[in-house]
Amino acid sequence: MKVLDTKNFSVTGFKTWGIHCGIKKTDKKDLAIVYSDREAAVAGVFTKNRVKAASVLLDAARVKSGKGRAIVANSGCANACTGKRGMSDARATAEIAGRELGVKPDSVFVASTGVIGEYLSMPKVENGIATAAGLLSATGWEQAAEAIMTTDIYPKFSVVQEDIGGKSVTIAGIAKGSGMIHPNMATMLCFIVTDANIAAPALKKALLASTERTFNNITVDGDMSTNDMVLCMANGAAGNKRPAAGSKDLKKFQACLDTVAGSLAKQMVRDGEGATKFVEIEVRNARNPSEAKRAAMTVAKSSLVKTALFGEDANWGRIMAALGYSGVEMDEARTDIYIGKAKLVEKGLGQGKSAEREATLALKQREVQIAIDLHKGKSTAVVWTCDLSSEYIKINAAYRN
């Protein structure tokens, strides 16, 4: 697998672009189109929030066909909690895009992100789609990534190449997300495209597996949004032999998809609203994988742990307390806790000032590792989070201003 470090990548058969059409109050880009020049296999994963935006409801129904041609995404307006009008606007967005791109409206997926409870300005959307459709470019991914940003500081990309089925295959993705990030999923939009020839059922299975290992292993603030989705399109333009179930080629495709999704997930955490630390939390030797992940995620989303991380305070008691209420089988007298290489806790007991000083030095780094050994089994889980800073409050207190 070759990981490409570039913003100017292209994926055979796909074009994209992003523009400002006036949905946002600022002059920042707010509408993007991703287009395949041929029918593509499509898979999607959507938020589990019971309150779902119109785009999520529409796409969740359309993705059942396993086919599609385009994605239209806007930022600045979530089109969530907008009732019948919101659903009508989502359908109209697809119809406008279908007309401009010369494809069937039901082959167009829509995505929105921004303020909940506000209606889309359809004249702006219509003009924006017409403009963006005329600017589509094979290398327009940076513009598209910028157009789906809300509180993100920077656009997010990931692209890899691999030999699959006798051909060079490219898998690439863009994403947005920095706040309201939590599993199932986050306040995120992610669009992954590939020129691989792969059946829709296999693509769906691969995307679900990748999502569980990556996007569902991150948390910024514990809030789950109404608009979250990952859409993946595979148009077969690479001309590779379609990978069979259980084959080496399918495993290579899965590894590539995991790499792209994992990179984008970590970029979202690094760009967490007001974040000053990227934090990896590993729980070792839990009774089973479910308990390992539950323990890790409980520590990761603890506000007390996250504020201690921001303050660079090696307050391991907050980690132990979170483990205690996580609901997993644990015994403090068997639990070890590390920050960086410093062993802060052994068998439930603090290891003194020297260990705390070493841990404090580790906390001063931009990237922090926390390891917890429960000594209860053989299962391990890793999740990624960030600290919780005063800047997070400022950003979210003024989000609609």
Features of this protein?
401 residues, alpha+beta, L-amino peptidase D-ALA esterase/amidase, Ubiquitin-like (UB roll), 2 domains, 9-stranded mixed beta sheet, 6-stranded mixed beta sheet, 11 helices, 34% helix, 27% strand, globular
Task: Walk me through this protein's architecture.
The longest helix has 23 residues. About 2% of the residues have low confidence. It contains eleven helices and 15 strands. Helix 1 packs across helix 2. It is globular and about 70 Å long. The chain has two domains: 269 residues, L-amino peptidase D-ALA esterase/amidase, CATH 3.60.70.12; 120 residues, Roll (Ubiquitin-like (UB roll)), CATH 3.10.20. The chain is an alpha+beta fold and 401 residues long. Strands 1, 2, 3, 4, 5, 6, 7, 8 and 9 form a nine-stranded mixed β-sheet that branches. It has a six-stranded mixed β-sheet with strand order 13-12-11-14-10-15. Strand 12 and strand 13 form a beta hairpin.
Distance between the termini: 44 Å
Query: Cα-atom Rg, whole angstroms?
Result: 22 Å
CATH homologous superfamily designation of the largest domain: L-amino peptidase D-ALA esterase/amidase
- Largest β sheet strand count, sense and barrel closure: 9 strands, mixed
Mean pLDDT: 92
The CATH level-2 architecture of the largest domain is identified as 4-Layer Sandwich
- Principal-axes geometry comes out as globular
Tally of discrete structural domains: 2
CATH class descriptor name of the largest domain: Alpha Beta
CATH topology of the largest domain: L-amino peptidase D-ALA esterase/amidase
User: What is the number of E strands?
Assistant: 15
Share in β-strands = 25-35%
H and E order: EEEHEHEHHEEEHEHEHHHEEEHEEH
Structural class by SSE content: alpha+beta
